[in-house]
């Protein structure tokens, strides 16, 4: 790309619709489409047509559909525009863009918010609760605090989860204690045995007990944290009114957990975090998403539409605009109050903060790297160096996970209760 082109504003195209008809919106890809602003301007309640389109929607021919061009594009000196994701970007001036869309079906309005104007989450995990309580103003903060506290009770963690958490905190716990706890829940026992018997692990002989699963296949840490994740899966179910690309919520969680496991095994042994903690942090990395749905259902519905319309942005940016805190903050807060190990809730809290340095940075950095791998984006070379992995190592881990997707889906059926 030539130096002059590097300063061009790329135009993002999004299609929305309501019961009356469609709308095409053009705005900078360095901004967030403001659904509320659209509603105020049009007096209509539009929703994105595509469920999750990172590349943006195809450009509709001018004059064939109502279009809104964000004011920032009309004022920019140089733009880059393409007809669809298979085409290359072409430069044009703002006057050329406006001339192309000249007509009664097009209007220029302020409908996007520059990402640079959206505040980020608190720097320190110790400030998270204050930020969340201040998020909705004094009156609503009281209500939010009550809802957060109620969430610790409603829905309750299964009794097996509480017992496993106690084991997590006991450095002297052994296989016998873990087998005893899991065996108290027949469904959980069956899930752990089925998980160890999955083709993913390639065990030829039959696994017929939890002890067998621990000793022969998964290991103590893995079974303890897997059992905890499985039991917690019943406490929070993916909401029906969420972003449509989260329909495979638990598949994403399991794939991330398995990827974390693979990355840890590829790391130099002296730098590795606990394998079980890495697995569980991957399984629960998006747990705050479910918590938001339970704690703030109306806000969650709005957040979901914003996420669909702004698939080009990290979800934390959209969460900060709509909620004024992130799902990583809420998820970490909740897991901390459920007494999960500090490394897990801290790693999740800083999983999108590559600059974080602290006692649990290896786990946080692995979660950050695994997110880049799952999104198929460029990998942060500094983070790769921090965790002692080459780009080839990391990509090979991702390939192994993708190659096992059919086996992973069968494992996900265990969480969803589909035998």
TrEMBL record:
PROSITE patterns to which the protein is assigned, alphabetical: HDOD (PS51833)
InterPro entries: HDOD, RNase_Y/CdgJ, UCP036888_HDGYP-like
Domain HDOD, residue spans: 154-354
SUPFAM superfamilies associated with the record: HD-domain/PDEase-like
PANTHER family: PTHR33525, RIBONUCLEASE Y
Protein name stated in the entry: HDOD domain-containing protein
Species: Maribrevibacterium harenarium
């Amino acid at each position: 790309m030539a130096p002059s082109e590097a300063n061009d504003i790329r135009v993002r195209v999004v299609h929305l619709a309501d019961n009356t008809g469609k709308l095409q919106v053009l705005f900078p890809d360095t901004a967030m489409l403001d659904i509320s602003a659209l509603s105020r301007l049009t007096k209509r309640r539009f929703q994105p047509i595509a469920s999750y389109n990172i590349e943006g929607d195809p450009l509709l021919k001018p004059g064939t559909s109502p279009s809104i061009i964000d004011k920032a594009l009309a004022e920019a000196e140089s733009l880059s525009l393409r007809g669809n994701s298979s085409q290359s970007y072409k430069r044009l001036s703002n006057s050329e863009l406006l001339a192309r869309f000249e007509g009664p079906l097009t209007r220029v309005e302020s409908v996007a918010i520059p990402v640079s104007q959206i505040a980020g989450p608190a720097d320190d995990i110790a400030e998270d609760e204050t930020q969340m309580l201040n998020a909705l103003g004094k009156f609503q903060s009281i209500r939010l605090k009550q809802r957060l506290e109620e969430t610790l009770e409603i829905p309750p963690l299964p009794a097996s989860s509480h017992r496993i958490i106690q084991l997590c905190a006991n450095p002297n716990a052994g296989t016998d204690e873990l087998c005893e706890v899991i065996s108290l829940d027949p469904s959980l026992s069956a899930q752990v045995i089925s998980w160890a018997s999955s083709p993913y692990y390639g065990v030829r002989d039959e696994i017929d007990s939890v002890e067998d699963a621990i000793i022969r296949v998964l290991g103590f840490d893995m079974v303890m944290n897997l059992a905890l994740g499985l039991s917690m899966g019943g406490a929070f179910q993916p909401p029906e009114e969420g972003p449509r690309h989260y329909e495979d919520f638990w598949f994403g969680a399991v794939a991330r957990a398995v990827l974390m496991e693979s990355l840890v095994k590829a790391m130099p042994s002296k730098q590795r975090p606990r394998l079980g903690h890495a697995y569980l942090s991957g399984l629960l990395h998006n747990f705050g998403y479910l918590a938001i749905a339970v704690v703030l259902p109306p806000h969650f519905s709005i957040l979901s539409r914003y996420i669909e319309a702004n698939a080009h942005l990290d979800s934390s940016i959209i969460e900060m605009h709509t909620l004024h805190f992130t799902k990583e903050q809420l998820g970490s807060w909740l897991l901390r109050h459920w007494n999960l190990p500090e490394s897990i809730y801290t790693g999740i809290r800083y999983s999108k903060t590559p600059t974080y340095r602290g006692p649990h940075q290896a786990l946080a950095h692995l979660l950050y790297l695994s997110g880049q791998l799952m999104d198929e984006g460029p990998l942060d070379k500094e983070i790769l160096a921090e965790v002692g992995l080459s780009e080839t190592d990391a990509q090979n881990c991702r390939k192994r996970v993708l190659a096992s997707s059919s086996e992973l889906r069968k494992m996900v059926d265990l969480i969803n209760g589909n035998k």
